[in-house]
Amino acid sequence: MSDRQVAAMMVADDSYAGSATYTRLETRLREIFGMEFILPAHQGRACENIVSQVMVTPGSIVPMNYHFTTTKAHIVLNGGSVEEIIHARGLEVTSDEPFKGDMDVAALERLVAEHGAERIAFVRVEAGTNLIGGQPVSLANLQEVRAACDRHGLTLVYDASLMADNLYFLKTREAACRDLSIREITRKIADLCDVIYFSARKLGCARGGAICVRDEALYNRMRGLVPLYEGFLTYGGMSVREIEALTVGLDETMDEDMISQGPQFIAYMVDELDRRGIPVITPAGGLGCHIDAMRFLDHVPQPQYSAGALASALYIASGVRGMERGTMSEQRAPDGTEPLANMELVRLAMPRRVFTLSQVKYAIDRIDWLWQNRRLVGGLTFVEEPEILRFFYGRLAPVSDWQQKLVAKFRADFGDSLWRAPASVRRKTGVRRDARCGRAAGAPAARLSGQGGSQAEGQGRSPGCDGSEALPLTGQGCQGRGPPLPAARGGVKVGPPAGRNRCNASRSPSRTSFCRRSTPSWSARARRTARRRCAI
Q: Which residues are catalytic?
């Protein structure tokens, strides 16, 4: 959240009915999307539940550019089925195509001709295809989809959860949008749609969601489900403080500078990994950097969940948490067979205003090491497999002792520390290990915030940019005992201690500066602090 969002939470109106807080959200949504009828919900999948219950009937079909896990689950639960009709270029893992999320409109026409318009519950377009690399949808393609819907009397539903990144890509990649403001692009999108819903965790940087409806009759059919599942119509399961934060967050999403930060950092990471020969989805999409596990672990069979295995291996090697987006995220067929995903990806999400460039560089360094030792990684198998959305809470085990072998290789290369100075730094400074804490004696403190640079890249330390000592990020760094510290936002516990000279967050990955303070030795107080952190 921004400081403006946090401040807005302090003026929330907690009235059950007639809340001024909800009125502000309703007004903002009408202003941005131009739709009269608004329904609040506690998150995006709650919106999917309401839309599916009202619009999906047994035997109906929902064509879409690509499915999302919970979206598909709600449609299937209500008796419908999903038809993915993304353009063929959308499944190319490496490409120069700027809009790989576009729908194949010709395939939509064939689907209507085969099944009839009466069996189509609605047509869904996801702005930023989550499961295949966060690839955007062009405005031109959305206009073509709208025209097809008009020809056959179909309802067009737009999942705007990842709209912020999609707006940035429209502004920078589509010629027709370059001279338009972000607000103007947003309204052009909204004017093409009948229903827009979103998760506020992604669009608005808060907790909650909403459904915007153009047709009053459809709104009335949905309205009764909000008090049944969510809460009263003036809060929909959200706290009023979150509603205030969402209202401000939606307004901030119309700021090109704000929405550009995430895609720029993602593009930096994708380009750097690609330069090192590490397989990633190109071009860089939204939401995060996506590693292609099929190529990264080409020796691991897809039924052994190569993307899940890579996410596990990356956490072991770095403490960085990634998200499996592949076969593990799919559902088994009714007969128990397992459909294999089109792609096996590890998503390294980078929400805006969270990470700094030095943290990205640290992750790149660990991924590079893992790439060099990828043959040590094996597969996974379920030991507890839920029937619904198994990837959320199922449990898996390695198919061999590959995790122990990976740890042994890690300790052989790094000892008990996650820190490794680049060779150039070791040569210049004569860095040596401190046996007490696995620390490099005399190592310079790196800057994990500020303009984003790092004098010792990828070291995995939480520095004191106000002149305090640099401390290890995980318990593995001190006397070799204890598991990694609890992860914060993506698996790496980061951030300098509070102080007057605390560095500011980076705005651009192209601008770097260095914190040149060195830490020649640890004080007794710093050692005690490190030991306490390891004991957490």
A: 16, 68-69, 159, 202, 325, 391
